[in-house]
Amino acid sequence: STQSTWGFFDSQKRALKMPPKKAATGATEKAKQAAKVVKKGANTKGARLVRTKVHFFRPKTLQKPRTPKYARRSVPRVSKLDKFQIIKAPLTTESAMKKIEDNNTLVFLADVRANKRQIAEAVKSLYDIQCQSVNTLVRPDGQKKAYVRLTQDYDALDVANRIGII
Question: Is the pLDDT assigned to residue 123 strictly greater than 90?
Fold first, then answer.
């Protein structure tokens, strides 16, 4: 009786068998290729990334520049340090006079917030002279003193006379 049961399943298998295969057409070849790509993955990496550092840092992402819809300040700030604010007054002490005579250097009191470049620019525009170098120091009373050395073309004594120091 067992043989008859198995025979029944065999006959069912024979009935379900597919018809003989036809020659593969272009569409089926394309489908096979697509299936292969899906199974494998289109862009697989061959080598794994080798990490050389112990710590992990998040990757840098695109940072676009800001494009504001309106200006946050209605009027741009105006620099309060103009040439008249930077140079307060020339110094007329004995040591300053000695600098004028010996070193071709003028001595000024300057604004504490001004830097050497600003002082040089202010002296150039105020007195029409070229300065070779500027040395500064902040005095114990909190004022900045600027030693402005003039180029060889200008004489500090003549400029001091023109300014009215001497």
Answer: yes
